[in-house]
Design a protein that fits this description.
161 residues, mainly alpha, 4 helices, 89% helix, 0% strand
Length: 161
């Protein structure tokens, strides 16, 4: 009895996972960008609550920080998983090439090059997802930090008055 691994099916699964990670990256980035646009209103609501003694400045800062940093972990996760799944796809692509070589018994460059091309495509997709996720992560993190700094300035102005 021979154990047969379906490399093409596993390889397609890797591509679907990488596509899903790409979708998550773009969806989270757009969602977070829109929420950071709305953060200005949330910032002024918190400052108003502080002025009316509904909340302490420290508690307001932690609320703002939670609001600004929510969902950013998903971008970090996609940035980490992208190259790992790309590498797994590379391994399956190379394994498909060797499996083809073993079945055919000859070194047919056309058949072998298909597996190698798929392997390289998986690597490129994994790295692409990671680069995109990291770029969005750092851009959104910088925007969130600017909003936090603005909050700190507003609070210091309140304390002086």
């Amino acid at each position: 009895m021979e154990f047969s691994i379906q490399y093409p099916i596993l390889h397609k699964l890797i591509f679907y996972i990488l596509g899903f990670l790409f979708f998550i990256t773009v969806a989270v980035a757009v969602s977070k960008f829109l929420s950071l646009i709305q953060a200005q209103g949330y910032l002024y609501k918190l400052i108003s609550d502080i002025k009316n003694n509904f909340i302490s400045p420290e508690a307001a800062y932690y609320d703002l920080e939670d609001y600004l940093n929510s969902k950013l972990w998903l971008l970090g996760l996609c940035a980490t998983l992208g190259p790992l799944f790309g590498l797994l796809g590379t391994i399956f692509g190379i394994m498909m090439s060797f499996h083809t070589l073993a079945q055919k018994g000859t070194s047919d460059i056309t058949e072998v090059s298909k597996g190698i091309a798929d392997a390289l495509l998986a690597t490129a997709e994994g790295i692409g997802v990671s680069v995109l996720a990291l770029t969005f992560y750092y851009l959104l993190k910088a925007k969130a930090d600017k909003i936090k700094n603005k909050f700190k300035k507003e609070i210091s102005n309140l304390k002086r008055v």
